[in-house]
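writing this on my phone so excuse typos. first protein, seq and then structure
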Amino acid sequence: MTNNKMEMVKDLPNKKVTVTRYFDANVADVWAAWTQSELLDLWWAPKPWKAETKEMDFRNGGYWLYAMVGPDGTKQYAKISYSAINPQKSYNATDAFCDEHGNPTNELPSMNWHNSFHADGDDKTKVIIEIHFANEADFETIMTMGFEEGFTMALGNLDEYFASRA
């Protein structure tokens, strides 16, 4: 098992969170894990939750509609809309909570993501995730929901996935 730690910098005045994380895999494999629904379903949700893709079209203007499924079967839907895709280098996305058809619920704030992927040797990749919020209240709402703990767990799931392939 890897010992890659997540670094999270919370910048409330600029309404931004920056996450830096290394993975023991090459850029192509890490990119695939972030952009293919069958792989996202394996790691995206913090255990005991799981991710379940309803639809995915990874392209500029495309989206990923998925549910976070709880141990009791409860589903919380979200839709990630993609833009500015630079294959195996970066992409932008807007992440919003929605109903099962992808219609925004506006009950919880949306987030704008910029994910970049950087080779660090042959078999290590650094991923930098910048998440921007519309205002400080939205930032605080997502952090209070347990974002840091949940995202840390999900990224640990991705480590487990890569370790299982080694």
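second protein below, same order as before
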Amino acid sequence: MAFFKKYNGTTNARLLRVERVIWALIYGGLLTLVLSYFAHEKQGVDVTLLQIIGGLAVAAGVVMVFVRSRLHEER
């Protein structure tokens, strides 16, 4: 008996697309935040817009995780 329940994914193309967008937003936003932090420290460039975009992308991804949890696959 496995400790974690195995998740094989969904066969619904719409839900699969939503899951891919969620992780792209979260990881892309985090990468943007990290890069803007180091660009600000090393070059002194005004990267406020980059930080805002990264933060909004992460926030949108987190909200979409909640939305995806409410969507169900049709059987």
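The radius of gyration is 17 Å. thats all i got for now
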